Amino acid sequence: MAGTVGFLGPLGTYSEEAALIYNPTADRPYPTITAVGEAVAKGEVDEGVVPIENSLAGSVIFTLDMLINQPNLFIRGEIDLPIEHYFLTRPDTNPADIKVIYSHPQALSQCQQYMEKNYPQAEQMASLSTVLCVEDMLGSDIPAAAISPRRASELYEVKVVDKGIQDVATNVTRFAVLGHSDHPPTGRDKTSMAFTFEVDTPGLLYRVLGEFARRDINLFKVESRPTKNMLGEYIFMVDCAGHRDESPMKEALEALSDPISMLRVLGSYPRWDPNR
User: Fold this and answer.
1) Which of 49, 145, 196, 201 has the fewest CB atoms within 10 Å around its CB?
2) Are 129 and 105 in contact (CB under 8 A)?
3) Which of 15-19, 159-163, 271-275 has the lowest mean pLDDT?
4) HSE-up of 124 (CA within 13 Å, CB side)?
5) Pick from 30, 39, 25, 35: which is nearest to 10 by CA?
6) What is the pTM of this model?
7) What is the CATH number of the domain that holds 257?
């Protein structure tokens, strides 16, 4: 693993934390998921790290749509990152005096029980990100706090009042590592793909999924996205066990050419191992 790595910025985000786990030299933040993908596609960076799925909120549609529509991008790795929210203040702030709490709307919604129990009178204010909320907090004229990642607490001069304040302890975000090609087989791989049907007839999806079932290929996820061409037309997304260059996945993909009109393999890559 070498080369430059871009990620969804700014510095201090969960995306940066995931990128640093993947490659400790990652140092190229980009403002949007699309910008990360474009940087990889244009060769500005060798790889990019973007969120693709959250255990509470589901798939990240911007990432899925980008992968579907960008033929030069592939998933070549994944990182599962537990989401642990930190409660931060200025060093001179008394937590009992807090009148406003800043964070991204998603982080605020994930910490409602903590805030209702400990700061029921504090106003909740939306920020553009879980990092920029720290700057909002630091610039506040009234006693304020911010809900941010651990990484943000290292980049700013702040006080960590509490940590692990999320309502659901099992909140995890899955990040995809993007590149110009997918990963060589490792023996413990996952393949992501997207496909559509030219005609809508009964049993088509059943036939496709049957190709995997007959070969004992485990499906991790099946979902659909609108094609954006016509109401009622969908792209089906599947994550399953195996690598596209190895049996039985290779044979399953070959068998899919009959019932489907478009098949795009988004990438074959090693399944995440937290103990790697």
Assistant:
1) 201
2) no
3) 271-275
4) 18
5) 30
6) 0.88
7) 3.30.70.260
Query: Do the domain assignments include residue 276?
Result: no
210 and 246 in a single domain? The answer is yes
Would you say residue 225 lies in a domain? yes
User: Do 126 and 54 sit in the same domain of this protein?
Assistant: no
Q: What percent of the chain has pLDDT over 70?
A: 98
Which pairing describes strands 47-54 and 5-8: parallel, antiparallel, or unpaired?
Answer: parallel
Whether 275 has a pLDDT exceeding 80, the answer reads no
CATH (domain of 21): 3.40.190.10
Q: How many domains does the chain have?
A: 3
Establish whether the linkage from the previous residue to 120 is cis, with ω within 30° of 0: no
Distance separating alpha carbons of residues 25 and 165, to the nearest angstrom: 29
State how far the Cα of 249 lies from the Cα of 211, in Å rounded to an integer: 10
Q: Report the distance separating Cα 34 and Cα 97, nearest Å.
A: 40
Predicted confidence (pLDDT) per residue in 51-77, tens digit? 999 988 888 989 999 999 899 999 999
Cα–Cα distances (Å) from 243 to 159, 179, 271, in that order, read 46, 16, 10
Q: Could you list the residue range(s) of the whole structural domain that residue 251 is in?
A: 189-270
3-state secondary structure of 46: coil
